[in-house]
Give the backbone structure.
Amino acid sequence: NEGIRIQMQDGLIVEFDSNGTISTMIRNDQSISISNEFRFYRGADIGRHSGAYIFRPSEQKTFPVNRKKMEATLYIDRKFGIVQQVHQQFDSYVGQIIRMDEKTDYVEFDFVVGPIPVNDKIGKEIITRYSTNLENDETFYTDANGRQMLRRRWNYRPSWKYEIQEPVSGNYYPVNSRIAIRDVGKSLQMTIMTDRSQGGSLSPEQINGSIDLMVHRRLLHDDYFGVGEPLNEPGVDGHGLVIRGRHLLLLDQVEQAAVKHRPLAQEMFMEPIISFTPFQSSTIMNN
Amino acid sequence: EMNITRMREAMGVMQHHDAVTGTEKQHVAFNYAKMLDAAMTQCRHVINESYRKLFPSQTEQHQFCPYLNISSCPATEMGESRMIHLYNPLGHRLVNRTIRLPVKDGYYYQIRNQYGNTIPSVLVPIPEFVRKIPGRISVANKELVFRVPIMESLGITTMYMDVTEKKQPYSAVEIEGEKFNG
């Protein structure tokens, strides 16, 4: 009932509160508060709609996915230290496993989202939000096809005076493999590695200290940019698509961050190829 | 060469702008998925041929598990022992890599390395939100989790999953969950 504290490699400490929500991360005796939640944007039902080509929600704010309290269960392997994970169920269509392996120095978020309910006739675009108390000066970094990290600033373009027409989507950028925020004062960088291309930004509701990543979308209207049908993938049973994805969260000193996230991106991109063949127990000794 | 070319051609098609951005019509998306799946099947055939050359004494076809992303794998979840082959495609070695294999209740599992020595493993429940993914056809309700100490760069590591009906001294330890109730 008092929450838990898990220590990982290189001294990274992760704390969960009594509800099973991630609450604090400690790196080099520096403590940052952190929270993670799933929220959604409502798709517009009049005017120009969100669709395959554009992200244009009806309101410039998000809503929580869970209609009731999140349920969480802790699994800890006290004998070998192989498994330290929390299973979180936010709603019937959103669940997540947070893994902390004591032999690694990142926190893994393994989420399952879908089928997105649209019985209320409202399309939804689901984001996961990582909020911290880092001071990033309204600035964040996204990768350019896994190569250069590009500096992005809220409501700003480096080569022209930017007039805001789309307060939320005008600040969304492609995230091919990673997105990061830096607190220069604390000399800390939080990097989120993605397992696929996603849209990402700071949170419009908290421009400092937060990262939003769009993980799934289901929309009921065409955006009239050419595809001619709404972004409403049926999935295997016709009730909507389910996605399962992973984010890895790194918290490091700014100077150390690239040393960690560059090889990790390669490991995510080229995972070991696993195959199986039958065998009888006696063949172990023969082999 | 022909088998790999099928994947080359599929990747060429996927460089069309609508596949890159995801702005293709739904029936086109289905076709792209079908094209990629067929190409991956051909590539698995190439991997099988490679293993056959490297290990001529092994006559069994390798089984692959494309549904491991939804914790489903017929090769591991039917209660039968399996050799596990792990190919590291990276140019650097992997250390303490964690592997998760879907398995079903009612059996005891042991993981051994290539020398036949048992290495620690645990069983963790697959959460309900994964088990109930529509279209997931699987009897697996647990994940067998273990660490592979070292996978050499561009190397093959072989492990053994030994399945028995009776508990063994080093069978995988089952982890119980504790609910947060704050």
Notes: The mean pLDDT of chain B is 94. The CA atoms of residues 125 and 178 of chain B lie 12 Å apart. Chain B touches chain A through 72 residues (CB under 8 Å).
